[in-house]
Amino acid sequence: MKSSVEALRSQLISILADGEFHSGQELGLQLAVSRATISNHIKALGTLGLDVHRVTGKGYKLAAPLNLLCKHNLQRLLVDTPFLDIEILNVTDSTNAYVKTKMPELSSGYVCLAEAQTAGKGRHGRPWVSPYGASLYMSMYWHFAGGYAALGGLSLAVGVIVAETLQQFDIENVQLKWPNDIYIHNKKLAGVLIEVEGHMEAGCDCILGIGLNMALPPATAGIDQPWIDLASASSEVIDRNVFSAALIAHLHTGLKCFETAGLSPFIDTWRALDLYAEKPVKLILGKREIQGIGKGIDSNGAIKVLTDSGLEVFHGGEISVRSN
Ligand code: BTN
């Protein structure tokens, strides 16, 4: 259940989301609290990555309007997706962590989205910077009946599903960096973190976490690599609810396809979008570094690199790939 502080901050953000000025008095009246209380909550919004300006005589205003998530809109946009269970969180530590706590009561296809994460997780134990309302923070639960063996190439398939959703919105120059980072013009747009809890024979529970930059404030701190967002990659304004609904629908269809056919229906698209095809790459495997030329993926989704010793193939796990 939302704490009263969180509920009040959420209401405050909903009023400010229009990007217009709102006086402390007006906000206090609407939320039935004092102006001093409003002022304290406004200060706290900075910790969620929100940039609130205060101008004497005018009041408070967000640096840019926010396009907030709306469960009703999402459900309306997803009427054709069967058995849909969607949850929208305001602020959470990590949507992946949230799904993990709820897993015993979930059915395949459940999805949760958050407006902000305070401890968003990236691959290789890195943080995922998650300012309020600026991106898509989504985790889907999926149960695979087949055990670990049925998951080979899943992360690549999810990358393809995200890329195809972007293409549906006419986003150009989408590329995939092995295994599933989404890049545009050599800058990262989105990442996927898959967490698996499984049993060798009795099926696997997967949490598919996707972070996709929608309209990150230009001064967003803490991202240690070049990034891009959908707002700058698209000539049209893309609504967060519309894009989220399209991604959820694509995931449902794509994961069902993966369940029955594995990676093979996704391979050609992955290869066509390969960021490092025929380019110099460096693979980092713990303390080991391997240099060579990217030669795409094999039928299991393993990355192929032409090194001084010949063609080598590397499977998933703790491998990072960089341009060289
Ligand atoms: C990466 O490092 O590229 C993967 C980033 C995955 C981030 C998403 S945001 C939603 C979900 N919740 C998390 O804590 N992480 C994933």
Please describe what this structure looks like.
This protein has 324 residues and is an alpha+beta fold. Helices cover 30% and strands 29% of the residues. It contains 9 helices and 14 strands. α1 crosses α3 (35-45) and α6 (154-168) runs antiparallel to α8. The radius of gyration is 21 Å and the shape is globular. Biotin (BTN) is lined by residues 94-96, 117, 120-123, 126, 128, 137-139, 181, 191-193, 209-211.
Give descriptors for this structure:
324 residues, alpha+beta, seven-stranded mixed beta sheet, five-stranded antiparallel beta sheet, binds biotin
Number of strands: 14
Share of β-strand residues: 25-35%
What is the number of helical segments per DSSP (H or I, 4+ residues)? 9
Mean pLDDT over the residues: 93
Q: Which shape, going by the Cα principal axes?
A: globular
Strand order of the largest sheet: 3-4-5-9-8-7-6
User: Would you list the SSEs in sequence order as H and E?
Assistant: HHHEEHEHEEHEEEEHHHEEEEE
Largest sheet: 7 strands, mixed
User: What is the CA–CA distance across the termini?
Assistant: 48 Å
Task: Name the bound molecules.
Answer: biotin
